[in-house]
Amino acid sequence: MAKALKVLQIVPSISLVYGGPSQMVRGLSTSLAKQGAKVTVLTTDSNGDEGQAPLAVPLNQPVATDGYETIYFRCAPFRRYKFSLPLLQWLRQHGAQYDMAHIHALFSPVTSLAATVARRQQLPYILRPLGTLDPADLAKKKQFKQLYAALLEGPNIQGATALHFTSDQEAKVSERFGAQTRDIVLPLGVVLPNFSCSEAEAKRAIRQRYHIPDGVPIVLFMSRIDPKKGLDLLLPALEALHQSGQQFQFVLCGGNPQDQGYVDAIGEQIGKSALKHCTTVTGFVTGELKGQILQAADVFVLPSYYENFGIAVAEAMAAGKPVVISDQVHIWRDIQSSESGWVVPCDRTMLTQSLADALANVAECRRRGENAYRFAKENYSWDAIAARMVETYHQLL
Questions:
Q1: Which of 51, 194, 281, 305 is most open to solvent, judged by the fewest CB atoms within 10 Å of its CB?
Q2: Measured at the alpha carbon of residue 61, what is the angle toward residues 162 and 112, in degrees to the nearest 5?
Q3: Where is the Glycosyl transferase family domain (predicted)?
Q4: What per-residue confidence (pLDDT) applies to 1?
Q5: What gap in Å lies between CA 91 and CA 85, rounded to an integer?
Q6: Residue 1 domain-assigned?
Q7: Whether residue 130 is found in the same domain as residue 58
Q8: Which pTM does this prediction carry?
Q9: Same domain for 153 and 228?
C-alpha cells in the first residue's frame, strides 16, 4: 500500500472574517483528507486587524478539524501582518517530516518566511499568490513591494516547485520578478453555506427579518468591503437604476477586518444617497444566515477591478443564482460560456444596463441561475479539485 502523502497547508489566518482564502484552505484540506492525504494546517490565531479578539483556540498543538489537523500559533508582535515566530520555529523543527508545503499568500511576513524556511530545508513547496502578483495589486505600495520582492518573494518564487493559480487569466497577468516558474492552474472549490431550509422558506425568513416587501427583487453583494470590489461603480449604477423607476432591494453583506474606515465610509455614502431606503446592510454574515441570504437573492453582483478567482461568485452560482460580474473577475469566461449570468467591463453605464436586463426578465434570470448551479456543481466541487490536487502533488514530487 502506498504511503500516505503528508502535506502542510500554511496560511496567515483561517478565520472566516478574512473571506475566501480562509474558506479555500478549509475546504481543500477536508477534501485532501478524503483523498487519503495527511494534512496539517499551520496558521495563526488572528481574527481581525483592528482591535478584534484573537481566535479562542488551543495554541501550539494539533486540533482535529474535519479529517485534518490544525495547529494555531500566537499572532505577535505584528498583529496586522499576522506574523508568528513560533509557527516558523515549528516549521524549522518539523518541516522535514512532510512531503510538500502548500503556502497561501505572498507579501505576508509569516508565509514569506515560511517559504524561505522550506527552501533552505529543501522541502518542496507550492506558492498560491491570491492575486498578489496581479499588476493592479502590485501597483499599491509599489516601491515597498519591489524591495520586498528583491529580498524575499523573488527568491521564494524562483525556489518554488510551482505557483498555483486559480484561473488561466490570473496566471497570464501575474508578475514573476524574472523567475522561471512552473505554473499549475486549478480552480477553487465551493463549500456551500448551511442551507437549513427550502428556498421558499429562506425567502420568507429574509424578507421578514429585513422588512423587504414581497415582489421586490433582491440584488445581493456578498464579499469583502474593499475598494477593489468596485463599489464605486456599483453604488452609482444602483442609484441610476433606482432613478429609472426599477424596484429592488440592495443587500450589502460583508466587512473588512483590515479597513473598518472604508466600511464606515461606504455606509455613510449609502445613508446620504437615494439608496438609503432600498438598501439593507447586514455586516459580515456566516452559517445559516449566509445560506438564507444567498437563497433569497434574485441576482448576485460583483464588479471587481481584479479578482484572481472570485469564491463569492462561485458560492452564488452553487446556490443557483445568476451573477453580474466584471471581466476582471478571472472566472468571467466560465460565466460567459455557461450562460450563468452577465459579464461587463468596469463601466458604470454597462453595469447599470446589465442589472436592468437581469431584473426585467425573471425567466431569463431563472434560466441563468439554473445554468450557474449546474456549472458550479460540475466544476467547483472540492472533492474533484482535491483529487486533481493530489495527482498534481505526486507529479511535482
A1: 51
A2: 30
A3: 203-374
A4: 44
A5: 10
A6: no
A7: yes
A8: 0.82
A9: no
